């Protein structure tokens, strides 16, 4: 009786593990925020790169819901803004353009099927 009960429990445990193991992995979308110092100002301009094609002479700075350009005091201010919108920090690095230091922050966010990023294969 004990062997039969133990065998049944082992089978149920294996089936449970197999059922949970077949879940789809979470899907993430990524963006990069790039901060550059404003000319003659202590604030910074932040551009968001979602992987979109950039057009020449197009403003890629971050804008709010009303289309107004958002200014930040520093990159942590920008990270807090994006964090409030569901983005999580992944990685940061700096580059130089002449004497200007450009800060890059890579962020990720889970997305649903209706928010799936548009790619060349979609």
Question: Can I get a quick summary?
Answer:
By secondary structure, this protein is α+β, with helices and mostly antiparallel strands. Helix content is 24%, strand content 30%.
Count of helical regions: 2
Within the largest sheet, what's the order of strands?
2-1-4-3
Order of helices and strands: HEEHEE
Under CATH, the topology can be stated as Gtp Cyclohydrolase I Feedback Regulatory Protein, Chain: K
Give me the CATH architecture, please.
Answer: 2-Layer Sandwich
Count of domain modules: 1
Mean pLDDT: 79
Low-confidence stretches: none
Q: Whole-number radius of gyration?
A: 23 Å
Shape: elongated
Number of DSSP strands?
4
Strand content: 25-35%
CATH class: Alpha Beta
Fraction of residues in helix: 10-25%
Secondary-structure-derived class? alpha+beta
Give the termini separation.
57 Å
**Main sheet attributes: strand count, strand direction, barrel closure:** 4 strands, antiparallel
Plain-language structure description:
- This protein is 24% helix and 30% strand.
- It has helices at residues 2-21, 75-83; strands spanning 28-37, 44-49, 88-97, 100-110.
- Strand 1 and strand 2 form a beta hairpin.
- It is elongated and about 85 Å long.
Which helices and strands, and how do they pair?
Elements lengths: L1 H20 L6 E10 L6 E6 L25 H9 L4 E10 L2 E11 L12
Antiparallel strand pairs: 1-2, 1-4, 3-4
Question: Key features?
Answer:
four-stranded antiparallel β-sheet; 122 residues; alpha+beta; Gtp Cyclohydrolase I Feedback Regulatory Protein, Chain: K; 4 strands
């Amino acid at each position: 009786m004990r062997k039969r009960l133990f065998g049944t429990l082992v089978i149920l445990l294996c089936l449970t593990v197999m059922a949970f193991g077949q879940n789809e992995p979470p899907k993430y979308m990524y963006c990069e925020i790039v901060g550059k110092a404003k000319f003659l100002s202590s604030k910074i301009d932040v551009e968001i790169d979602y992987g979109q094609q950039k057009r020449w002479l197009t403003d890629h700075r971050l804008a709010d819901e009303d289309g107004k350009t958002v200014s930040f005091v520093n990159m942590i201010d920008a990270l807090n803004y994006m964090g409030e919108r569901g983005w999580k920090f992944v990685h940061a690095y700096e580059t130089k353009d002449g004497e200007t230091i450009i800060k890059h922050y890579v962020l990720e966010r889970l997305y649903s099927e209706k928010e799936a990023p548009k790619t060349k294969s979609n």
